[in-house]
Amino acid sequence: QEEEPDPSDLSVDHEYFQEQIWPRLARRVPAFESLRVRGSWAGYYDYNTFDQNGVLGPHPRLENLFIAAGFSGHGLQHAPAAGRAVAELLIKGRYETLDLRRLGCHRLLEGEPLREHGV
């Protein structure tokens, strides 16, 4: 942790990437050896600090407010299912394709994080 760049500084630390990250990537995926970085950026992303899982569904106190947030960097992967789930809630008033109630706001209010055991 002491080697990690300061998160408040959004400039890209190319040296850290080349010396610390790139060798690990190349060991894990040998095809990365033949690739070279052509551009970079640094920024913040949507992150749920409570349990690192998305928050999806109706707001517990504000009528007509639906939430689809906090997917902690996995938003693009989860977007199709999250969009469909919210559409079902809006149109049908319930989940039909996938039951995603466990991602609801209730777990934050009740202090019960949704733990992923396979991660």
Draw up the topology in text:
Elements: H1 14-28, E1 55-58, E2 66-69, H2 75-92, H3 106-110
Antiparallel strand pairs: 1-2
GO molecular function, one term: oxidoreductase activity
Function: Required for the assembly of the mitochondrial membrane respiratory chain NADH dehydrogenase (Complex I). Involved in mid-late stages of complex I assembly.
Pfam family, one: DAO
Can you walk through the features of this model?
With 119 residues, the chain is mainly α. The chain has 2 domains: 10-43, no CATH class; 55-110, no CATH class. The protein is 32% helix and 7% strand. It is built from 3 helices and 2 strands. The protein has a two-stranded antiparallel sheet. The longest helix is centred in the C-terminal third of the chain and has 18 residues, at 75-92. The model has no long low-confidence stretch (mean pLDDT 88).
pLDDT average, as an integer?
A: 88
- Distance from first to last alpha carbon: 20 Å
Q: Biggest β-sheet, characterized?
A: 2 strands, antiparallel
- Domains counted in the coordinates: how many? 2
**Which strand order do you get reading across the main beta sheet?**
1-2
Give a count of the beta strands, DSSP E runs of length 2 or more: 2
CA-based shape: elongated
Radius of gyration: 19 Å
Spans of at least 5 consecutive residues whose pLDDT stays below 50 are: none
Percent range of helical residues: 25-40%
Pfam family, one: DAO
GO biological process, one term: mitochondrial respiratory chain complex I assembly
Domain FAD dependent oxidoreductase: 6-89
Protein name: FAD-dependent oxidoreductase domain-containing protein 1
